[in-house]
Task: structure prediction
Amino acid sequence: MRVVLVDPSRTVLKFVGRLLEARDHEVRAFTDGEAALDCIRSDLKVGALITSAELISMSGLELCWETRLLATCDRPIYVIMMSSSQDQHKLIEALDSGADDYIGKPPVAEELYARLRAAERVAAMQQELVRLATTDSLTGVFNRRAFFERACDACVRAEAGTALSVVLFDIDHFKRVNDLYGHDVGDRAICAVAQAAAAESALVGRLGGEEFAMLLEGHDLVETLAIAERLRGKMSVLQFDTNHGLLAITASFGVSAWEAGDTIELMLKRADVALYAAKTGGRNCVVAADANRPIPDLAPPGSRLRAVARG
Result:
């Protein structure tokens, strides 16, 4: 675990730092609270803070509070207050200021190790809870809620100038797959489609049933159309052995690019219009939501790229 250690005494820093390094913890040592806070802000791999209550430029309580504000569900930071005082009020004040634990100074080695093991358990449990809350249990891609949360963050970056596109796609005639081959085969098809999309190094979410969305930062409409067409080709050759013979599937795609003032909802709405056009136009094709931009020859003969005006 990467640990930020803060104490005004270099002797204490050296003593505690050696204890931590003896158990293979990475130590970032500081005598100043502000410098330690800067390190925690910039280094996302910091998993724990051990700070003395007796700091100079910033109190240990302030550092606890500021660090707690930096911690999120995606970034757990375990905070241990270290003090030579055994005053019960100090303990209460530290916990109320955001500390997870309180330890005497100088710490007893085995006690310090035990508290850090507790920190690792808490972090592991929190990360597992986040995974369960954000991941679609069938496919392993993001679930609907997590996809929209991350897409909103991407839209903020797009507003600042980063290219952004979205692809909405689903499996063609999926109800027929479930009806003829069974839901277990349908689940296999959904998982295979999700894995193919996730291999494109994009943010992929399962929005429901057989419908998926893929968000591509740094890619404009033309680039995203090429990616969607490549993905369509991969899905068109997927085959599954079933009790009723070999099953082949296809998928249809709608693509939309960021426009000034957009939201993820607006982008998906335009992509949905394009996806509907793909469905009514024969399925197993890629349709762009903006007919005003030319679509070059992005794929070899046989590709199915089209454009549709926004409705």
Observations:
- The chain has two domains: 2-134, 144-307.
- Residues 292-301, 307-311 have pLDDT under 50 and may be disordered.
- Residues 144-307 form a domain with the Alpha-Beta Plaits fold (CATH 3.30.70.270).
